[in-house]
Amino acid sequence: MKRELIFKNEEQELMRVAEFMESVCDELQLDMHLAMKLQLAMEEMVTNVIFYAYPEGTTADISLIAESDDHEVTFVLSDSGMPFDPTAKEDADTETNPMDREQGGMGILIVKNIMNEVSYQRLGETNQLTMKKKL
Q1: Integer Cα distance of 10 and 133 in angstroms
Q2: Owning domain of residue 119
Q3: Is 132 helix (H, G, I), strand (E, B) or coil?
Q4: Could you tell me the pTM of the whole model?
Q5: How many domains does one find in the chain?
Q6: Would you call 59 exposed, middle or buried from its count of C-beta atoms within 10 A (0-12, 13-18, 19+)?
């Protein structure tokens, strides 16, 4: 299975991403618990790209590819925004009171906890985040 969604860096596109993820999970016949985790992971990463990868007022295309074999599903999120490696950030401090800790970092921590493998690379002018989950 291989599917791709191209969408704009606009908040209303989050609904299309959710529908895409739901259809991928249905096609793979994933149980609801795993499907919800994968949808959460994609929502976290796509939201970050939509809101933070581009200067305000810039419209651009973002790509989400889902590919699977019998053992693993791979998601590749690609954008042409500012270079940013979310995997390089130190994990968010979950021990400190949320009101006292530095903002940010929870999304990638959630993704790292859901996925078996998360990697980033900058290919020319493109950020590429690859996320893999064993089935």
Answers
A1: 27
A2: 2-134
A3: strand
A4: 0.89
A5: 1
A6: exposed
- Type of residue numbered 34: L
Angle formed by the axes of helices 14-27 and 32-52, to 10°?
Answer: 150
Give alpha helix (H) positions in the chain: 14-27, 32-52, 106-114
b or e along 9-47 (b: 16 or more beta carbons within 10 Å of the residue's beta carbon)? Answer: beeebeebbeebbeebbeeeebeeeebebbbebbbbbbe
How many other C-beta atoms can be found within 10 angstroms of the C-beta atom of residue 83? Answer: 10
How does pLDDT run across 103-119, given as a tens digit for each residue? 555 678 899 999 999 99
Give yes or no for a contact between 1 and 25, defined as CB atoms under 8 angstroms apart: no
* Residue 55: CATH number of its domain: 3.30.565.10
Low-confidence ranges of the chain (pLDDT < 50): 92, 99, 101
